What does this fold into?
Amino acid sequence: QEVRKTIQEISLAALQPLGISEEQVIAVRLPETASSRKQIERFLAPVKPFGTQQEVRVDGAAFIRYVQESHGFPLMHADLQKTEVRLGINGQVQICTEPPPGKPQVDQALSHLEDYFHTVDWGQSPNHGLAKTSMFEALLYIFSTPFAHEFMKIKRRKFGVLDTRGPRFLYIFGPSQNGKSTFLRFALKLLTGHHLQPFSGSDFSKRKILNALSIGTVFPLVFDDLAPGQKGSFEEVLKSFWEVWWSAESVSPQILMSSNVYNLKDWAKSRLKRIDFDVHFAPNEKHKEKLAEMFARENLIFRWFSYFYFQEIQTAQVSGDDELCVARLAMKKLYEFSDRSLPDYFPAQPIERLYDPGRRH
It folds into this structure.
C-alpha cells in the first residue's frame, strides 16, 4: 500500500499541465519502511531519480514516457474537482475535456461516428441494426472507462457492502473477420487522438493488471483476442479486481476484452458486460481505403462527451444495473446540442435489455 500510494502520487503530479517552456520535476516523500523505499527506487530506476533518503525527485516527462514504453499504456486521470480528463502520452500532458465549440463541429463529429457504424452494411449480418446498436453500446462503454473509478465510488456510497461488485468488464464477442480489432483501435483513437494498439490477449495476466493498479491510471486495459479458458489468472482477476483489490483512495482503470469464445462460466457471465458483434466482413480493398480515411480524420468527440459526462455524473442517479447510464445521457446531450436526431440504432437502454444473445444464438 505504501509503494502504491507513492507511485500514484507521482503519476498524479506528472499529469498536472504546465506551460510550454516549463520542465516539471516531481518531488515526493518516501515511506519510512526500508523495503518500500527499495521497491520504489527499483521501479523508478529507469527514469534516473535523484534526492535523499526521505525524498525522491523525478522528471515528469520522463516518467510519462517510461510508463507508456515499459507498461504499454499511457497515464490518464479524471479530475472531478477541475472537471477534466488529463492524458499523459509521448512525454506530454493533454487536456481531454472542453465545451463543444459549435453545432456544425459537433454535427460533423457525430456524422463521422455514424459513418463508422454504417460500415456494418459492408458485411453480412442477420440484423444490421442490432450490429450497429452493439457497436454504439461498446463505444459508449469505452468512452465511460476513464470514469469507472469514480462510478465505483458513487456506487459503493449508494449500496455499501450490499453490492461490492464494480462496473462489469466489457466482453466483445464474435468470430474472426467481424471487426472487433478494428473497432478497438478506432475507439482508442477517438478516446486519445492517437493511434494506439490494444494488448494481445496473451498479455492478460494478474501481474500486468496489478502493475496498472499500482501506477494509478484510468486509461482502460484493452486485451484483443483473449482466450479466457487458457488464462489461469482470468478468474482471480475478474473476481478480485473490484471486490478485493479496489479502494476508493487508489485510482483504478477498467478492463476490456474481445474474444471468440462463446461459452463462459456463470461466475464470469455476471461480471462481464457481453456485447456481440454479429457481422462478418469479407476482405475488400475499397473498404480498407475508406476505413483508412476514417482513421485519419481528427475527431474531438470524446473531449465534448467528457464535458457533458462531468455535468451529468454530479446529478444523475447512478444505476447498479447500467454502468452506462451517465454515458447515455452525455451522448444524448451531444445530439441535442448539435440539433442532430438520434439514430434509430442508438442504445437508449442496455443492450442486454434490447436483445437476448443466448436466445438469438
The longest strand covers residues 84-89. The two ends are 45 Å apart (CA to CA).
